[in-house]
Amino acid sequence: MKRARVAFAGALHEATPGAAPGTLRLADGRVVAEDQVVWLAPFEVGTIIALGLNYADHARELAFAAQDEPLVFLKGPGSVIGHRGRTRRPADATFMHYECELAVVIGKPARRASRAEAMSHVAGYTVANDYAIRDYLENWYRPNFRVKNRDGGTVLGPWLVDAAELAWPPQLALRTFVNGKLTQNGNTRDLVFDVPFLIEYLSAFMTLSPGDVILTGTPEGVTDVAVCDEVACEIEGIGRLVNTIAGDAEFGR
Amino acid sequence: MAAPFDLPFAFAPYRLSGTVYGVLMNHRAALAALGDAVSQPPYKAAPKAPVLYVKPRNTLVAPGVPIRIDDPAGELEVGAALGIVVGRSASRVAEADAADFIAGYTIVADCSLPHDSFYRPAIRFKARDASCAIGPAVVARADVAHPDTLGVRILVDGRPVHSASTGGTVRGVARLLSDVSEFMTLAPGDVLLAGVAPGSPRVRAGASLAIEIDGLGRLETRVVAATDEGAGR
User: Fold this and answer.
1) Pick from A23, A162, A188, B129: most CB atoms within 10 A?
2) Is the CB of A77 less than 8 angstroms away from the CB of B19?
3) What residues of chain B lie within 8 A of the CB of A145, using their CB?
4) What is the ipTM of this complex?
5) CATH of the domain at B66
C-alpha cells in the first residue's frame, strides 16, 4: 500500500493513489487531482538520520577513501518539506546540489536489533532529496548544519510505501532528473552499509522509534541546481519526488 | 510536527517540542583549549558558523529520570548548558529582537561519550539513549535579566567539580539565536543549548549529578549503568 499525507480544503488527510492517473483518493472518499493538494511528508517525522558517503562511487566523486564506520549525521524536523515543495537557493551559493536517497521509515521500536531481525522494524520506504550547499562546508561536525540542515533541505515523499511491497534486498534504480534531463543514475544495491547493517549499528546506541527515518545516502551524479530548476528524484517502485528551486526574493530576502 | 512520542517535558505552561540543538565550541576558552590544532588538519580553521548538533528524542530524559551509560566501567562527559526555550517561530531573527522569540530558559545536562575529534558528527558519542536531562523547570525569559552572565556549577556526589559561566562565549544568547535562525527556523518549544564551557567533568555509573545555573534552580539526576542484556558499542 502507498499512503500520502496531504492538506486539502482546510484539513490534513491521509490519501492513497486514485483509480485514474494523477488523482488521489482521500480517506473521506473524495477524489482530487494531485496538483490540487499540498503534499506533506508522508508520515510524522521523528529523528532524521542521514548517511554520508554511503555509495562507493559518490565517495570517490568527493575524493574520500572507504570508511570503516558509517558517516552518520542528524537533521532537525524544521528542514522537512513534502512533494512539490520549494527549496531556497541563497544568492551567494555557487554549488547547491540534490541528493536522491532511499528513505527507510521505522515502524516498530528498535533497540539493539540484530542484523537478522533488523528489517522487521521497518514500516516502509519513501524518497528523500537531501539537499546540500557545499559553499558552506566547514570541517567541524562535517557536514555541518549550514550545509545540510537548512529550511526546505529535506524533501520527503510523495508516498510511504509499505515494507511488504518491496522484495529484499532492494535492487532499485535511483535517478534524478533536472528539468527533465537525467543527471544521477544509481542503484540501491550499491549501498556501502546496507539497511540491516545501519539498523543494527544505530540501534546499538540509540533506540529507534516509529517515525524515525534513515536517509541512506546518494550515488554519484550530484550537480549544481539553479533557481527555477525542477528537480525530480525517482526510485523505482517507490515514487517520483518533485521539488523546485526558489530564489531569495520569494522569501523576502 | 514531531511524531507522537512520550515526551516527558510538561513544564507548564511551557511545552517542549522534543527538538534539542546543541552548539559546539561556543565558549572561547573551549576553542582556545584546542590550541594550534584548530588551524591544523582536519579542521584547518576556526568555525565560522555555529557548529550545531542534534540531541535526538531518544537522548532526552526528564529530571529525576537517570542518565544511562551502557558500559558499567566507562565514563560520560557532562556538558552543563543553558537551554534557550524558543517561544515563537524564529526565522531570521535580528540580534536586537532575539528576546521576543525566547519563552524562557532551562538547565540541560548534555552527556556524551568522551571523544576528541570534532571533524565528523559524533552521533555514536552524543546521541546515546538517555544522555540528556532537562529541567527542573522553564524559567520565564522576563525573570532572567542577563542570560550571558549566569554562574554554572556541576556537582558530583554533592561535591562541586566544575564552575563556569554562560559568559565568555563566541556568540551570546541573542547572537546565537540570530545566526542559527538565519538558515534554519526554530519552532516553539525547541531548545537551543548555548554551549558548554571547557573542562567538562566525567562521571561513572553510580554517580549523582547536579547542575545549578543562577536563577534557574538545580537539575538533579543520577548516572546508572544500562541494566539490560547485551553490550553497547
Assistant:
1) A188
2) yes
3) 49-52, 183-184
4) 0.95
5) 3.90.850.10
